[in-house]
Amino acid sequence: MARIVIVGAGVGGLATAARLATTGHHVTLLEQSDTVGGKLGRYVHDTPAGPFHFDTGPSLLTLPQVFHDLFETTGAKLDEYLDPVPLDPIVRHVFPPGGPTLDSCADSDEFAARIAAAFGERAAAQWRRLWRQAERVWTASERDVLRRRIDSPRDLAMLAWRLGDLAAIGPGRTLRGLGRAHLSDPRLRMLLDRYATYAGTDPRRAPAALVAVPYAELTFGGWYLRGGLSTLADALLTRCLDLGVVVRTGVRVTRIDAAGGRVHGVRLAGASAPVPADVVVSNVDALTLYRDLLPTPRRLAALTDRSLAGFVLLLGVRGDSGLAHHTVFFPDAYDDEFDAVFGAPGRGVRARPAPDPTVFVTVAADETVRPAGHEAWFVLVNAARQGTAAGAVDWRRPGLAEAYADRILDVLAARGVDVRDRLLFREIRTPADLGTATGTPGGAIYGTTGGLLRPPNRGPVQGLWLVGGSCHPGGGLPMVALSAQIVADSIGPAW
């Protein structure tokens, strides 16, 4: 039996703890916040009409089979803890000019029929051809990448992909290039481009392999958890406690002891003695790990590519808007948004708040999260990360957040959804707020990355492992859960 300390009780830390406890290890989970869940956050706003409950992180559960496997492996059933609700549409896309719409769904034939009805048979035929390629990319990725350790670029190069799979993935091609090669309708290209933001990147730079992301969502479906996505963190915490995991919240790890090239334990703020450990699993951002907990400057150079961040409004709205669970309102000029969010520091162009951004609105038809006669709106726009460098925005600048919140409400009104006279309240969450709440540098949604190849799960010293969205296989709830599986399988059972 190994003494295992997990630093961070996000979904990755919770899932790893449950898996390792199931195999007989003594597991201690340490979290600096007073609650677990990490970026799977929640917020409650009380009003005289009643409480509004918001998910402040993910709003969609994809690849549900990953979570069914997680619960079954730890001796339970997902449906015993959670109430998954399939969504149709998964996302309603509202395109300019004039607002034509397209609803995505988990039936490929039905979705192609919806494309044909909206944009014509030629557009639908092109989508079907792209979808056949996306299937091959997904199959190769799921088989050879997402469920195994990738410790180096050499490991990735040595994977036994068939030549046909490599051609489908299109090494060197961007997601934007893939869309232009297959889709003539600019609105379908826009729809495909948006999936680059799922990985926190610009579609003009994102690898074509990310076509696997829409394939997974639109093949296996998108799901909502009644009561909010944050109930997943509650369920995982319950599994951990039932399995004997020691969970300590409100404690901050300041250092991982690794003398002699192997871990010995962790040090806590305000504590005189370290917490001993044979194995340490880090569920904090990779940059934070190497820079603050286990300084390894030689590894920091590869961790400079941070994902985009998000500017969020939490709105209490009177009445019924009639919106789908998820609605995306696209701008007239999509590239202008990415020019603003990422800037061009090499050309002296600073990042800035996008004046006409894509607006993503989540409105759950769930009576448990809002008072009767009201709606709880989660509004998200892509944003530059927090900072003062050319590729960032100082969201703490006085007046900036309030002014940009006003701008987003004006943009929604211009796109046909004006709620300014129906607001009961609004709360603002900037990238600076996310960075403070979760310890993520700059408030980057998907953490620090080295591009497509993220930091490996095996740490630089013996007994150290990385889990979560900033390491392999990537960000998003199912990828984080798969990283937990990779780490737990690598550590192995106690017997």
Counted beta strands: 22
CATH superfamily of the largest domain: FAD/NAD(P)-binding domain
CATH topology of the largest domain: FAD/NAD(P)-binding domain
Amino-to-carboxy terminus distance: 7 Å
Counted up, domains total: 3
In what order do the strands lie side by side in the largest sheet? 8-7-17-18-19-16-20
Radius of gyration: 22 Å
Shape: globular
Helix/strand structural class: alpha+beta
CATH class placement of the largest domain: Alpha Beta
Strand content: 15-25%
Unreliable stretches (pLDDT < 50, length at least 5) are: none
Largest sheet, described in full? 7 strands, mixed
Helix content: 25-40%
What is the correct CATH architecture of the largest domain? Answer: 3-Layer(bba) Sandwich
The overall pLDDT, averaged over residues, is 91
How many helices?
Answer: 17
Keywords: Carotenoid biosynthesis, Oxidoreductase
GO molecular function, one term: oxidoreductase activity
Protein name: Phytoene dehydrogenase-related protein
Domain Amine oxidase: 12-297
